[in-house]
Amino acid sequence: MPVLRQSDNTLLIPSTRDRGWSIADPEYLIEQVRLHHNDWSFFRPIARVLKDWRLDITAETRIKSLVIEVLALQCLPRSGTRPEALRQFFSAAAVEVNLGVVDPAGYCGLIQSDLDTVALRDALLEAADLADLACDQAARNDTDGAQRAWQQMFGPDFPPPAKKTGAAGAGGACTVDHRLSAGLGGDGRWIAPLTTTDSSGGGTNPDVWTQAGASCRYSFPT
Questions:
Q1: Nearest to 120, CA basis, from 168, 208, 50
Q2: Using CA atoms, how far apart are residues 172 and 63, in angstroms rounded to an integer?
Q3: pLDDT per residue over 46-70, tens digit each?
Q4: Distance between alpha carbon 51 and the CA centroid of its chain, in Å?
Q5: Is 128 helix (H, G, I), strand (E, B) or coil?
Q6: CA atoms within 13 A of residue 86's CA, in its CB half-sphere
Q7: Per-residue burial over 150-172, b = 16 or more CB atoms within 10 Å of its CB, e = otherwise
Q8: Strand partners, 12
Q9: C-alpha 134: how far from chain center
Q10: Could you give the residue ranges of the DSSP H alpha helices within 98-167?
Q11: DSSP 3-state assignment of 88?
Q12: Span 86-129, pLDDT tens digits
């Protein structure tokens, strides 16, 4: 598709729908994502978490990845833990989505004109309740209850509460000794953790987690 760059670095893009040229500035969004991630290094991993989460929403039309990315820019904090960030995101996004998810550069209007706003809002509200539950249970040191709440939100790919022994049984699910943090590897698969128990018994090792079997996709902090 041919595009024309203007003197202010915006782009003119041909539009068959409008039978003319539309102004866009995709580089504005790229820069805003970069700045947000510079302030809070969990931004990009959590945005990917949210884009993956949207795929399980039952809606009349598929929710575009860009809708979630713009909501993440608007509603994710610039500091804090990942569980609390998700808690804040779902509560704020459930309100924000009612106002319309628009081009943050201010040129293109709605990101998705056929967005099923009701379905997305309902999913955000349900996730907000589960995030509240998970964070509240973690604050009470009920790590198993928090893990189950995150699993209910993210589905069966999220591992169940950790086995207390830390031993890896053959053919089982992921086994982790302590709190995990979600993220994404370069191949798009979920990876973890922040802290696991070192197999040598010598404290914690931020680079190791125990997995029994190879079916696990991700874990999340409690």
A1: 50
A2: 34
A3: 999 999 999 999 999 999 999 999 9
A4: 6
A5: helix
A6: 30
A7: bbebbeeebbeebbeebebeeee
A8: 4, 23
A9: 16
A10: 117-139, 143-154
A11: helix
A12: 999 999 999 999 999 999 988 888 999 999 999 999 999 999 99
| Residue position matching structure tokens 């029994």 | 212
Contact (Cβ atoms closer than 8 angstroms) between residue 56 and residue 155: yes
| C-alpha separations of 85 from 31, 94, 166 in Å | 21, 14, 28
Asked if 95 and 55 count as a contact pair (C-beta separation under 8 A), the reply is no
Token pair for 39: 């302030």
Contact partners, residue 127, CB within 8 Å, separation at least 6: 53, 86, 90, 153
Termini Cα distance of the chain: 46
Q: Quote the pTM value.
A: 0.71
The kind and range of the H/E element at 5 are strand 4-5
Q: Which of 183, 185, 184 is nearest to 221 (CA)?
A: 183
- Dist. CA 204–CA 178, nearest whole Å: 9
Query: In sequence order, which residues have a C-beta less than 8 Å from that of residue 57 and are 6 or more positions away?
Result: 63, 119, 120, 123
Q: Is 188 exposed, middle or buried (0-12, 13-18, 19+ CB in 10 A)?
A: exposed
Quick check: helix, strand or coil at residue 105?
coil
Instruction: Quote the crossing angle between the two packed helices 43-54 and 65-75, to the nearest 10°.
Output: 140
Matching residue, tokens 């598709």: 1
